Amino acid sequence: MKPYDVxxxxxxxxxxxxxxFAKRRGASVLLCExxxxxxxxxxISGAGRCNLLNEKLDASFYGASARELVARIFEQFGKTAILxxxxxxxxxxxxxxxxxxxxxxxxxxxxxxxxxxELERLEISSALNCAIKNIEKTGMxxxxxxxxxxxxxxxxxxxxxxxxxxxALGSDGNCYAFAEQFGHTLVExxxxxxxxxxxxxxxxxLQGQKIRATVTSRIQGKDIRTVSGELLFTKYGLSGTAIxxxxxEISIAINRExxxxxxVITDLIPFMGEVALVxxxxxxxxxxxxxxxxxxxxxxxxxxxxxxxxxxKADASTIAHLLKHKEFKLQGTRGWxxxxxxxxxxxAVEVKPDxxxxxxxxxxxxxxxxxxxxxxxxxxxxxxxxxSGAVAGNSI
Length: 396
Ligand SMILES: Cc1cc2nc3c(=O)[nH]c(=O)nc-3n(C[C@H](O)[C@H](O)[C@H](O)COP(=O)(O)OP(=O)(O)OC[C@H]3O[C@@H](n4cnc5c(N)ncnc54)[C@H](O)[C@@H]3O)c2cc1C
Description:
By secondary structure, the chain is of the alpha+beta class. It folds into two domains: 4-190 and 342-394, FAD/NAD(P)-binding domain; 196-333, no CATH class. Helix content is 32%, strand content 24%. It has helices spanning 13-24, 40-44, 67-76, 79-89, 108-121, 176-181, 201-205, 241-256, 274-286, 304-313, 316-324, 380-394, and strands at residues 4-9, 29-32, 53-54, 93-95, 100-103, 125-127, 132-138, 141-146, 151-159, 187-192, 196-197, 210-219, 222-233, 237-239, 262-267, 326-329, 332-333, 341-345, 364-366. The strands form four sheets. Strands 1, 2, 6, 7, 8, 9 and 19 form a seven-stranded mixed beta sheet that branches. Helix 1 runs parallel beside helix 5 (108-121), helix 1 runs parallel beside helix 12 (380-394) and helix 9 (274-286) runs antiparallel to helix 11 (316-324). The protein starts with a strand and ends with a helix. The chain binds flavin-adenine dinucleotide (FAD). Flavin-adenine dinucleotide is lined by residues 9-15, 32-35, 40-42, 44-46, 50-51, 131-132, 160-162, 165-166, 170-171, 174-175, 340-341, 368-369, 379-382, 385. The site of flavin-adenine dinucleotide has 39 residues, from helix 1, helix 2 and helix 12.
C-alpha cells in the first residue's frame, strides 16, 4: 500500500487540527483514533461548554519550562489565527467576564461538529476504533501496526495521543512509549488540575460546602501560588476552582518529587482584612452576640461545626487569625480519573520550535497534551492543542 504523507495518531483536539492543516497543504493524511468516536475529551471540556481559548493568550500562562516553545508557536498561530480558524469553520465564539472564550452555542458538541465537518469536507480518512500499538522506522518510512494487526505506512507521523488524564476517554499515556523508542525522554506525568486529599475533620464536617476563598499553596515552608475562587470541601479533602488552580505545583511536589510538608492555606474571609475582622468580631462580642452565632453573615452556619470549640473560648484575634490562615496539610491528590490535565510529558526542549518536529527523529512530530506544556485553567490547554496542531500540520 502506498505510504501516507502523514499519519496522525490520536483524534483529539490537537490531532484533528493537525490533520486538517496537513491536508490543506495537500498531504495525504490518515487520522487514527483508538476510540469509536473522535474528540471524546473535547465533548466534556469546560463542563460541556468547551472553554476553547482565552482573551489573554500568551506564553506567561504556561509552565516555565515550556514558555519559550509556546511563545514561538503562538507567533505562528496565536489568538487571532485560532479565532480565524474557527470563524472559517462557522463557529462564532464569545467571552465571559473573565476572558474565557466559548462557542456562542455554549456547547462543546458544536466545536467537535465543525471540526468533523471540515475533516469530511477535506475527505480526510479517519480510522476509528484503531489503536496504534507499534511504530517502527523502516528505511524512509514509518510502519504503524494497529491493535487489530493492520499495518499502515507513512513518511511522517504526528503523535497527538494526549496525556494520561481521563483514561476512559482514550488518553492513557500509551503514546509516550513511541516517543521514548525514538530517543525522547519523559518528564514524569502526574495528575494536573486536580482535587487534593487532606485528612482533616473540617473536610468531613463541611463536605459539600462551597465558599469563595483565597487559597495559597505552601510547599516545604515556601508560598508558591495564591488564587481566589471557589473552595469546595469534600469527604476526601478540598476541591473547587481555587484548589484546581493551585494543584499543579502541589501534584508535582507530592507525586513526582515525593516531598513532605505540603499545605494549602485558606483565607476563609477574603473580603475583609485581618484587622477589620478582629474589629468586627470584637464589636460582636461587645454587643453580647452568642458565641454560637458569632460568625453569622460572615460564613455559612455549618462552619460552626468545625469551629465550635474555638468559638467557645478564644478571643477575637485568635478566631480572626484562624479564619484568615486556616491550614490544611495535604496527603495526596486525586488520581487520573479526576485530573483535567497532565503535568509532564515529552520535554518542550526536545522538539524544534518552528515545526514541532522531534529533534531526535526526522519525520516525527508532536502536538497537544503529549508535550510537557501545562497551561493554566481558562482555555489555555485547548489553545495549545489548536495552535500546536496547526503548526505541526503546517510543517508537512
Ligand atoms: C474534564 C475536563 C475538562 C477540560 N476542560 C477544558 C477547558 O474547558 N479548556 C481547556 O483549555 N482545556 C480543558 N481541558 C483540557 C483539554 O481538554 C485537553 O488538554 C485537550 O483536549 C488535549 O487535547 P489532545 O488532542 O492533546 O489530547 P486528547 O484530547 O486526550 O486526545 C488524544 C486522543 O488520542 C487517542 N489515542 C491515544 N492513544 C492512541 C493510540 N495508540 N492510537 C490511536 N489513538 C490514540 C485518544 O483516544 C484521544 O482521543 C479539560 C480536560 C478535562 C479532562
